[in-house]
Write a structure and sequence with these properties.
This protein has two domains: about 60 residues, no CATH class; about 80 residues. It is globular and about 45 Å long. The chain is an all-alpha fold and about 160 residues long. The protein contains eight helices and no strands. The longest helix is centred in the middle third of the chain and has 17 residues. This is Nudix dNTPase. It comes from Melittangium boletus DSM 14713.
Length: about 160
């Protein structure tokens, strides 16, 4: 986690310098090379003391908006949240503990979703609760078949 220096200087310049140092031309390319890696770990890789996960999230959203791939970004964020909250995949049984882990992943995903996609995410969450995926389901990227069913690309 950042010690506060993440908010000093130009965040955007720092992020893109770090991404280029690692051989990538965009934050999206950097993240795509690390599918299902939680946002906080992406931030740590770019700068343990001076990059925050929310900065990575914001940069990824900005690039997704430019590329008109916001729905794919939304799916990617869910993959990263599920990877963090449910590292062994979707629970076999929804007991109190696993229900809390699922709720945390879905709640964080909802909070990170741009306004333009809030309603679609709300519907996807309801579908996941009503018809849970098979036990152990763990999407490895934003192009997972189930995720594309829940949130198909519909960019303008």
């Amino acid at each position: 986690m950042s010690n506060g220096s993440a908010w000093q200087g130009s965040v955007k310049v720092r992020l893109y310098e770090r991404v280029r140092e690692r051989g990538y031309d965009s934050l999206t390319a950097f993240a795509e090379a690390r599918p299902a890696v939680p946002l906080y770990l992406l931030a740590e890789e770019l700068g343990k003391d001076d990059v925050a996960a929310v900065q990575v999230l914001s940069g990824l959203l900005a690039e997704a908006e430019q590329r008109k791939q916001v729905t794919r970004f939304v799916r990617d964020v869910l993959v990263r949240e599920l990877s963090e909250s449910l590292p062994n995949g979707w629970p076999t049984e929804l007991d109190d503990a696993s229900r809390g882990e699922v709720a945390m992943a879905l709640g964080t995903w909802s909070a990170y979703t741009p306004e333009t996609h809030k309603e679609r995410v709300k519907q996807a969450r309801a579908t996941l609760r009503a018809t849970p995926p098979r036990a152990g389901w763990r999407p490895l990227g934003p192009d997972d078949e189930l995720l594309r069913t829940l949130l198909p690309d519909e960019e303008a």
